[in-house]
Amino acid sequence: MTTDTPPRLLTAEDLLQLSSDGFYGELIRGVLCESMPPGVDHAQIAAKFVTRLGPFVESRRLGRVVVGDPGIKIERDPDTVRAPDVAFFSAQRLPLDQRIQGYAEVIPELVVEVKSPRDNRDQLNDKAEMWLRQGVRLVWVAFPDDRTVESHHADRGVAQHREDGELDGQDVLPGFTCSVRPLFEA
């Protein structure tokens, strides 16, 4: 008689240790999900979101903007750590003087996801819905191939912004706007 032991589920702390050893990916309900770095175009688009959001947020001391797959712990026992491309945390949710070692356990108000070569639209829509279920209020999903951005809002549904359009921070970042076209320019 043989018994199969279930695989050991990993924790956020295990993932943090693995990332210091060079692992790149997320943790979904205790299971590692490795991913490949998405490439320069993806990183450049994420950086353009940051260069527009960052000065707006910092000059008003509204909170902080983070980039580079920061890791946000969204579930425990088993742990789930997801890594948005860009995130905005308000000063109310994450005080400006608070340092975070490791993964944030605070849900951001705004998340930006940039389509990677391995992603498809359904996966990204599922990811946006996951962020909204976790308490993110606004998710921008950028599609480099067709140069559009979709806004997923917790209360207002989904809107598409074409290359000649404009994004706005809605009730998450009132007064913030940026043109879509420059986000995709080389």
What does this structure look like?
- The protein is built from four helices and twelve strands, in the order αββαβββββαβββββα.
- The N and C termini lie far apart (61 Å).
- The protein has a single domain (38-69, 82-184), classed as tt1808, chain A (Alpha-Beta Complex).
- A six-stranded mixed β-sheet has the order 3-6-7-8-9-10, with helices on both faces. A two-stranded antiparallel sheet has the order 1-2.
- The protein is globular.
- The protein is α+β, with helices and mostly antiparallel strands and 186 residues long.
- It has helices at residues 12-20, 40-59, 121-134, 181-184, and strands at 25-28, 31-34, 63-67, 72-75, 80-82, 86-90, 110-114, 138-143, 148-153, 157-161, 166-169, 173-179.
